[in-house]
Design brief:
The structure holds three protein chains of three kinds. By secondary structure, chain B is mostly helical. Chain B is 68% helix and 0% strand. Chain C folds into two domains: 196 residues, D-Maltodextrin-Binding Protein, domain 2 (3-Layer(aba) Sandwich); 142 residues, D-Maltodextrin-Binding Protein, domain 2, CATH 3.40.190. Chain C is globular. Classes of the chains: A mainly alpha, B mainly alpha, C alpha/beta.
């Protein structure tokens, strides 16, 4: 399909291709448009058509100490989770792909299992274990809980790119005299970058958006944003939660833009 | 397992032999598994063992001295006297499979577009569009879908005002609404996973096929698609795992007509306060889904004629 | 983080064999003992804002302690997971049905009297009745919320919800997860059968209510009513009155058969190390000034008879002997014992 890019005879096919993709993007963005409307609409519920524009929900979000503390805590935790899961997940993907480990298929499935268990159960199990070990509810316990559900993404996405990876490039580098460390940093790492990048994006988002695992592991006055929003919503379901969502999206988008400006994301995702 | 984890691009027989020799014992790289193994043993296997142990107790033995060992939680699931548990398991898996299939169908074109996008700006915008839904927060996002799909929602209002239908269509409080919302949440996982893989496919292979006279469809089916199988596998497994363990979305979107195992588990933990039964349901769900994942790995590996994709 | 340290120290002390060990490790614990910590559970939203902004700081100041308020619901599974001798909370705040489950497992005290909590002497009998484990500090009334702009007459009976005009326009709760839904089910037994415990009549009446929109929690029902997605639904009075003065076309109706009480219940865990403080907290929450503040903040009916509400609240909340007589308290012990069967039956009925 993409081969049609520079050829005129295939315009029809290309048009269909673009139209389908445009529709799919519309599908992805439709709920976000709703959230934006909810965040700006003065009524305390979602109404169509909107009756006006107000900043009061953003005010409420930004002036709420609980919201702000939770936002920073969530960002901080997500950053820790990002680093931890890239290191742990990337390393184990390499081991799974290159280590000739016995029972590889089962191991890989095993590393997926935290995703298959309803997270509320993972949260409860961790909480119960921390209590039994007399640890209470430390912040690192929450970070580990998030890392546990984030690592499978990094493993998956990294394995996927490693799979299409022609090992002869590494072998060639080694033959040309590069040491293993140099081969890793100059050949392997650039090649697996798209997978690690995608996994890192997932890890950050999964942590930032994590609710069921956090539910049991957050400590009083140390709740993450999704927990605070959920508690808030059970009693006050108003535009403040939509404002929170909008702020999260805008933050993420600005990160994407900054990364794009600084390093050129395309190179990362596509190689 | 049987093979080296790399795609044998019509590999020569001698190479295969070579690989078999290496495959016989782990290489030093295998040690890189250690941190993950430690993390999983300490913080997943152990806690899960605690949970699984709990599933053989009548009450939480930590706080309840009257807790006794019992098989009754599993018996209750097996007997299923009310006729809901087995159905819940089946509908969990069905929703998982449908969601995965649709997410793949939707995610592939988007991933292909993103991977082959020439313009930097276009690429950044598309990436933003894909990432944005993931950051809305699970509950808020579900509410947005409710606003779109409910009887007085945007879609029904538009359909009625355009005269397509007189009465609102039942777009939510059923499996349809559940699947739509699940696909929406999880399609980004599919797209980003696939993009990494499609982006790594050497476009010259496609160009070569085209110049040899293959049609675009044939080039896609015989070159691009087979080469993206690892991404399809990875993305599908992620989406499947996520959708069979989701409970917020099905409970908000499904109304009374959808009942999944994770919903039951959440009910048992949060409102029936029966961690034993919740644990038993968790053990059952995890066992069934692990079996499916391993089987899926095997089948896809066999179909694509490739040694090992996992 | 640091908050858990005292408890870890304490458990260390318990297990330490030698006096010397206790002396060295005990020193910081003694220092901290001057500011004791009370661990409670509480709600979020407006209630949580008022608690954290005003009520709890004032309590901390008066009793020279720190209050650690857990707002991450559900609380009972966490209490279940903590050892009985070292519970994770000192005071458990939940709705009534959960307290019954908790007392069943010995996680909260069976009875609290005016001896431990003096203000109990001033509360309405329902707040400490045999249908309550612990003390009810506030109650809401579960009745019918309805749109005033749909030409609907103000409902006078629970039967109004079954009006065929409301098909697909009526709202209820997912019964397994919401106590309003559970209470409503029992009410159906009373209205259509022999009494609150007449489940067969209740199931039959429930089936007649289909098609019905079921939600997870009350905030959602409020929004469905406000947005017009539902024209009449089961809801507690505070969920409607809180929009008072905002020009919303919704109102609350008290059916002639009575309203159901949705109590806010406090109770103390038997293993609490600061039991006196826990009782002091309950007593504090029952003080007239605290009751007035919170009642008027979130439209909850106060338990203390001595509370004088402003006219606007006085007109609507349940704060006289005559008004509280309309409150019906379900037998949650009875219900909890059957919950699993009821859940299964209801799930079946609504799916078929």
């Amino acid at each position: 399909m993409s081969a049609a890019r520079n050829r005129t005879p295939f315009d029809a096919g290309r048009a269909v291709y673009l139209a389908v993709n445009a529709l799919l993007v519309a599908f992805l963005l439709a709920p976000i448009a709703v959230i934006l409307v909810f965040a700006l609409n003065p009524t305390p519920y979602i109404s169509f058509p909107p009756v006006g524009v107000t900043w009061r929900w953003f005010d409420k979000f930004f002036s709420g100490a609980d919201f702000m503390n939770a936002l920073w805590l969530s960002l901080w935790i997500a950053a820790c989770v990002l680093v931890l899961s890239i290191l742990i997940g990337g390393a184990s993907a390499l081991a799974l792909a290159r280590g000739n480990l016995p029972g590889r298929a089962w191991l890989t499935a095993f590393f997926m299992s935290p995703l298959m268990l309803p997270a509320i159960l993972t949260g409860l199990a961790l909480f119960q274990s921390y209590l039994l070990a007399g640890l209470g509810r430390p912040v690192w316990g929450l970070i580990i809980g998030h890392t546990l559900v984030a690592v499978p993404y990094v493993i998956r996405t990294t394995l996927a790119v490693l799979h299409n990876f022609d090992r002869r490039i590494e072998e060639a580098a080694a033959v040309l005299g590069a040491g293993p460390i140099r081969v890793f940093f100059e050949v392997t790492l650039p090649l697996i970058r798209p997978g690690v990048f995608a996994g890192g994006v997932f890890a950050f988002i999964v942590s930032f958006d994590q609710f069921p695992v956090s539910l049991f592991l957050v400590q009083p006055n140390g709740e993450t944003l999704p927990v605070v929003l959920f508690n808030y919503m059970k009693f006050d379901l108003d535009g403040a939660i939509a404002a929170a969502s909008t702020v999260s999206i805008l933050m993420a988008l600005s990160v994407v833009l900054i990364l794009e400006k600084l390093i050129g994301l395309k190179a990362y995702v596509k190689l | 397992m049987r093979d080296l984890p790399r795609r044998p691009l019509r590999a020569a027989p001698d190479l295969r032999h070579h690989r078999k020799v290496i495959a016989s014992r782990p290489t030093p790289v295998a040690w890189l598994i250690a941190p993950a193994a430690l993390l999983f043993v300490l913080f997943f296997v152990l806690p899960f063992a605690v949970m699984a142990t709990m599933s053989f107790f009548s009450h939480n033995p930590v706080s309840n001295p009257n807790a006794v060992l019992t098989f009754r939680h599993y018996q209750r699931f097996i007997d299923d006297s009310a006729g809901i548990f087995h159905e819940a398991l089946l509908s969990t898996l069905r929703i998982g499979l449908i969601t995965t299939a649709i997410a793949l169908a939707i995610g592939y074109p988007l991933a292909h577009w993103m991977a082959r996008m020439q313009s930097r700006l276009g690429h950044a915008l598309l990436l933003m569009a894909v990432i944005a839904p993931m950051l809305t927060g699970i509950v808020v996002r579900t509410f947005a879908w409710m606003t779109l799909l409910q009887d007085k929602g945007v879609v029904n209002t538009l359909l009625i005002s355009w005269g397509f239908t007189e009465k609102p269509l039942p777009l939510m409080y059923n499996e349809f609404g559940t699947v739509v919302a699940l696909v929406h949440i999880y399609v980004p996982f599919m797209v980003l996973t696939l993009t990494g893989v499609i982006g790594r496919i050497d476009e010259r292979l496609e160009q070569a096929a085209r110049s040899l006279g293959a049609s675009r469809a044939r080039t896609f089916l015989e070159v691009t698609l087979p080469l993206s199988v690892p991404g399809i596998l990875a993305g599908s497994l992620l989406v499947f795992a996520l959708s069979i363990s989701a409970y917020v979305t099905p409970s908000l979107m499904g109304g009374t007509s959808v009942l999944t195992l994770p919903m039951l588990i959440a009910q048992q933990v949060g409102t029936s306060f029966n961690p034993g039964f919740a644990g038993a349901l968790g053990v059952i769900l995890l066992t069934v889904s692990l079996a499916i994942v391993v089987a899926y790995n095997r089948i896809l590996a066999r179909l694509s004629g490739q040694g090992n994709l996992a | 983080m640091t908050r858990t340290v005292p408890f870890r120290r304490r458990s260390l002390i318990r297990t330490a064999a030698g006096l010397a060990a206790a002396a060295t490790l005990g020193a910081p614990a003694v220092l901290r003992a001057q500011t004791r910590t009370l661990r409670i559970t509480t709600w979020g939203g407006k209630w949580g804002e008022m608690m954290k902004g005003q009520v709890l700081p004032a309590f901390e100041k008066e009793f020279k302690c720190t209050v650690q308020a857990d707002q991450a619901f559900p609380f009972l599974p966490k209490l279940q997971a903590s050892p009985k001798g070292d519970p994770i909370y000192d005071v458990l705040h939940t709705n009534s049905n959960e307290q019954w489950k908790a007392v069943d497992e010995g996680l909260v005290m069976a009875k609290i009297t005016a001896r431990e909590v003096p203000n109990i002497a001033d509360i309405y009998p329902y707040a400490i009745s045999d249908k309550i484990v612990g003390v009810s500090i506030f109650t809401s009334a579960i009745g019918l919320g309805f749109r005033t702009d749909k030409g609907l007459a103000k409902p006078t009976s629970w039967k109004a919800l079954a009006d065929s005009k409301l098909a697909g326009q009526r709202g209820g709760y997912i019964i397994p997860v919401n106590s309003l839904g559970q209470a409503h089910l029992m009410m159906l037994g009373k209205v259509y059968g022999k009494g609150l415990n007449d489940l067969d009549a209740a199931f039959k009446a429930m089936a007649e209510l289909k098609p019905i929109k079921l939600v997870d929690f009350t905030g959602q029902m409020e929004k469905m009513l406000l947005a017009g997605e539902v024209s009449m639904g089961v809801i507690h009075d505070s969920g409607i009155y809180r929009y008072d003065g905002q020009n919303q076309p919704v109102d609350f109706a008290i059916p002639s058969e009575g309203v159901l009480a949705l109590e806010q219940v406090l109770n103390v865990t038997p293993g609490s190390k600061v039991r006196d403080l826990a009782f002091a907290y309950i007593d504090y929450m029952l003080r007239p000034d605290v009751q007035k503040l919170l009642a008027e903040g979130v439209w909850y009916s106060p338990s203390n008879r001595k509370v004088k509400l402003d006219p606007k609240f006085d007109a609507k909340l349940f704060n006289t002997e005559a008004k509280v007589a309309q409150l019906i308290q379900p037998d949650w012990k009875w219900y909890n014992a059957r919950k699993d069967d009821i859940d299964a039956r209801v799930t079946r009925i609504l799916r078929d």
